[in-house]
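User: Round two. Same drill as before: sequence, then structure, for each protein.

Assistant: Same drill it is. First protein:
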Amino acid sequence: MPSKSKAERRLMGMAYCYKKGKCKLSSFPISVRKKIQKMAKSMTLSQLRDFAKTKETGLPYRKKKGRR
């Protein structure tokens, strides 16, 4: 499943690094630590990798909020 924005892709990359054990939680900004920890617990390593490996070309920086 591809990421919908550059920010989402980068956040998934951080969660992937944390879940894999290459990065410590303290190495990430304080504002995203809880999100990273929550995503790492709720998603599998392959799901995180699929989101993180999305190409950034053509993606918006942030997903626009739209009506549902």
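Second protein:
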Amino acid sequence: MKGIDEFKETKGRVLQHANNIEKKVQNIENAILVRPFDFSKQEIMGITEFSEFFDSYREKIIGELVKDYQNIGDTYLRSIEECTFKTNT
């Protein structure tokens, strides 16, 4: 019974980590990289200002997505390995 209980606990942790990975992947997949902009309500911008307006937003979002992607391996996959194989790498 102890072995079955340990297996159920491990399974629960693995499924929780898998769910977290799925959420991160969905977040990356559904990311909006082009800043929403209402052209009818804005003043005309110069090309440099216009470019910076969109580029700064895109860079910020991509930075956040890269962190999410890195967390998948650094946090979730490592945790799955540790609880499944009882290792501590």
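The CA atoms of residues 20 and 67 lie 14 Å apart.

User: Perfect.
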